[in-house]
Amino acid sequence: MNPLLSRLQPYPFERLRQLVADITPNPAYRPISLGMGEPKHPTPELVKQALAGALGGLASYPATAGEPALREACAGWVQRRYGVTLDARTQVLPVNGTREALFAFAQTVIDPGRQPIVVAPNPFYQIYEGAALLAGAQPHYVASDAARNFAVDWDSVPAAVWARTQLLYVCSPGNPTGAVMPLAEWRKLFELSDRHGFAIASDECYSEIYFSGEPPLGGLEAARRLGRDDLRNLVMFTSLSKRSNVPGMRSGFVAGDAALLKQFLLYRTYHGSAMSPVVQQASIAAWNDEQHVADNRAQYQRKFAQVLPLLQPVLDVRLPDAGFYLWAGVPGSDTDFARELLAQYNVTVLPGSYIARETAAGGNPGQGRVRMALVAETAECVEAAQRIVQFVQSRSK
Questions:
Q1: Could you tell me the pTM of the whole model?
Q2: Which helix (H) or strand (E) holds 271?
Q3: How much of the chain exceeds pLDDT 70, in percent?
Q4: Which of 372, 342, 343 lies closest to 355, judged by CA?
Q5: What ranges make up the beta strands (E) of 54-126?
Q6: Cα separation of 139 and 133, whole Å?
Q7: In CATH, which of 3.40.50.300, 3.40.30.10, 3.40.640.10, 3.40.50.10420 is domain 45-289?
Q8: Which CATH superfamily is domain 3-42+292-396 in?
């Protein structure tokens, strides 16, 4: 058995299941879950039609590199969204959702014989940690700064850590905080990457859900603005799951440094992770259409506009830069809050300490916070918020 498996921690949702295993929720309320970031808005008809029309593709093996038409569709979207021109043959690679790609990328770029470190934000998407551990690397967690709307404090990383870093995970917009990295922070990370040679994996799955008129800055766009047209040491990961409400389709792509993607394609050829031809055709339809994305974004904007005013008088919570999570400060223990809320009002939230780790400076930056995924229809999210208000008020009495 691989001994590195023993280093993995239980996944947050398994920890949540164990936390509430002895609870019988109040039957007076129907269950509402804000615990998992699984999009619940309807899948666009154009995607369903493309899937149905491509079933003939089931009769053939797919190429790991994907069909040229799909790579061109992905490159076209990057050009329209970020103003970055890519070579679809060498700088774009379809993946079966970003979860498996973020994990596999670490196995490609990390040399376990050189005492590698993988730097990741804290709190974080747990795949970063698991990918680092199973690649034989040591994770280093960088806490977010609540005073800057939870921007990651990259300046807190010691020089000795950067010197051993082989991979940096960036998540912008962040999960769970929704923070978006500005150009100045990208410049800082690019300079560190040039100095120490580490790869940057930029997880941008929430880029199309935002609340201001200006879309979030992406890593490829930041590189272009800073004159890094070769996109050296940078790979962007994105997905249709949140953008197009198709989490079950497992479709996304990576783009960036051609040298890194050449090696990543080699790894994936042996990994057996080619995308189904049926999914490829549906993905082309999704990447080539923006109207359903704008409609989806507007629905999230309306939802947050109704939910936030209800929660802000009773919780420490603010509008994120982007994404569909609320990262809310709660009175007392985050795990007690989650248990009691489920027991009394049948609403599920995820304790923040489950998606963060103790830092070298001490303390878990997720303690005293919960993550709420506003993924359900607006009426259900509003009802959940109303119950949370009642719960907090009853606790304070």
A1: 0.96
A2: helix 258-271
A3: 99
A4: 372
A5: 92-95, 117-122
A6: 7
A7: 3.40.640.10
A8: Aspartate Aminotransferase, domain 1 (3.90.1150.10)
